[in-house]
Amino acid sequence: LVKGVNLHIHDDVLGHVPTRETMMTDIRLMKQHNINAVRTSHYPQNPLWYQLCDQYGIYLVDEANIETHAMGAEWQSPFDKSIHPAYRPDWAPAHLDRIRRAVTRDKNHPSVIIWSMGNECGNGPVFYEAYDWIKAYDPTRLVQFEQAGENPNTDIVSPMYPSMDYMASYAKDADQDRPFIMCEYSHAMGNSNGNFQEYWDIIMSSPRMQGGFIWDWVDQGLKAEDDNGTYWAYGGDLGGLHLQHDENFCANGLVSANRTPHPGLLEVKKVYQNIQFTFDPATGTLTARNLFDFTNLDQFAFRYELLQDGEAIASNRFRLAAPPHAAGAHQIDLPSLAAGKEYLLNLYAYTTSATEIIPAGHEIAREQFQLTSPAFTSVATSGTLNVTNSDREIVIEAGDVTAIFNKRRGHFTSYKRGAIALDALPEPYFWRAPTDNDFGNNMPERLGVWRTAHVNRQLTALEVGRETAAGLPIKASYLLTDVGLPYIIEYLVRPDGAIQVAASMDLSGHDLPEIPRFGMRMTVPGAYGQLEYYGRGPEENYSDRYTAAFLGRWEADVADLTMPYIRPQEYGYHTDTRWLRLANEDGDAIVVQGNQPLSFSALHIRTEALDPGMTKKQQHPTDLRYDQDITLHIDLAQRGLGGDNSWGAYPHEQYLLKADSYHYSYTISLKPSTEVTN
């Protein structure tokens, strides 16, 4: 299987002349993240690169230096073939010369497994002639040519950015006798690589589906400095704003220009891994399927870990053997599982010996199995409420907790317990800072009505219910005037001082675009920057990019959660969260407990500061000004990232928020250090 990336030659200081050290960094990162192949997009590269790939084991698709995209390309839009070089006899010698020189130069490199005749350059008669020449000169290797589609002058059907429907159709078509290897897919621009697992679900469904090359490996940014610090320049920077440029479209990498991995690379590593695990909880049988071509699984060490409500309660190491393309089994003796607890089984595989590029103990594969479902149940509380209800406000006391609700505006203006104090509880919020894929599918304009939907909110009704043993219910009904929608928040102030928040919105009968997010946000004092949560982590994850992010208990300092992308955009999200806690140095904490899985982010920056508006505006991380306070988003969901391409493709339908109604709930509480327990 081809688990590849496209590589443009790039160094963030030296430009198109990277050093051997940079090349070795690339090889180490690729091998450590289960990448086994590179397409030399879109030209033959430094001879040293081929020598290193020979030595360390990277497969290469060696591509001739031919591209005439601006003249037209097959499968994209109509173009005039009478003037296109690929279809003119007077241009044939130049095409053939470049293809022949690439093949003759690199023919003795064992890393080269496929020849490519070029990129986005039409499929005129010269490419049929070139195909015949290559096959006669080197019958040992395959030839791929994306522009040929399914025409005869390619041994591989190698489309770029194919639809999932086309992939599934090809996988099922028994008449297809050529391998399907995507020359470009999963466009990694900014916060991207959504639905990556779905690509590989199709690839693994048929032997004719044999992988592809992600676009692409590294952001082509140049290291620069301004008064705010170091940043990586892209199109329009460095005095070029008045010239023709393509903004940050040179930054589509799985790693940044200085080779810092982007969060999406971990998803690629997980999906590209060469061991597939399955587990039968009834028998305790773990099966490991070996997808390596040359390596027995006895070369690796394995470990399992059993989690109860996110904490490890048992683990063990073991070994198993399986030759390439076979499977091995191991028996795991699990303890009895208590009722009402969530149990997760984690599996890991590690290297046992070091090489020059992969250290001993390096994780090469992982999997998580959910053995039992989480129990989102309310806990019975004790205590007594003291309620003072006036025309303007309701003051509620529960022991040392005090909450004040403004009846005229319909929200809480104070929530305190000792030194822990909040000026407000979470309020509705629907927007996200557009990703590069969002800009590509015109999300800022199409969904722009949601950018300010939270602002002009009118209280239309307020119901203060009768106090019961469960607490005091307060129901606030609003009209979101920018979108003409009713929005309801139902509070339940419990006798222990915790407040349950339930939000709902009905969109039926309204002609509105899908929602970027359905959730709420609040401001938390910056002192509460020690984050702990039970959800997917530790890296950021989204509804369509999460397989590498395991459920568990994770910790982070909010101050460390800074922008990982060359252009500021949405970042730092976590899905499938059961609870989260923001604590200060004394251990006092603000705790949020979901009544269903939550998604959240906790950052020292607001969405408004990340959102450039209707255009990208040449922003860089050095332009950001982080706040002292923390912005906490508590969401039911956010739209997926997408990544099929960055110039029009939406996130897949199942990752869009297009339902007629939404409802979710959670409980927020204030916990002094003396009460904070597991």
- What would CATH call the architecture of the largest domain? Distorted Sandwich
State the helix count. 10
* Share of β-strand residues: 25-35%
**Could you please say which CATH topology of the largest domain applies here?**
Beta-galactosidase, Chain A, domain 5
Distance between the termini: 44 Å
Outline type:
globular
Find the structural class using helix and strand composition.
Answer: alpha+beta
Please describe the biggest sheet, giving its number of strands, its sense, and whether it closes into a barrel. Answer: 12 strands, antiparallel
Kindly report the average pLDDT value.
Answer: 97
Helix content: 10-25%
How does this model look, in words?
The protein folds into three domains: 2-222 and 250-262, Glycosidases (TIM Barrel); 282-370, Immunoglobulin-like (Sandwich), CATH 2.60.40.10; 385-671, Beta-galactosidase, Chain A, domain 5 (Distorted Sandwich). The protein is 13% helix and 33% strand. The protein has ten helices and 33 strands. The strands form six sheets. Strands 22, 23, 24, 25, 26, 27, 28, 29, 30, 31, 32 and 33 form a twelve-stranded antiparallel sheet that branches. It has a seven-stranded parallel sheet with strand order 5-4-3-2-1-7-6. Strands 17-18-19-20-21 form a five-stranded antiparallel sheet, with no helix packed on it. A hairpin with a 7-residue loop joins strand 23 (457-464) and strand 24 (472-480). Helix 1 (20-32) runs parallel beside helix 2, helix 3 runs parallel beside helix 4 (125-137) and helix 5 packs parallel to helix 6 (196-203). The longest helix has 15 residues, at 92-106. The radius of gyration is 28 Å and the shape is globular.
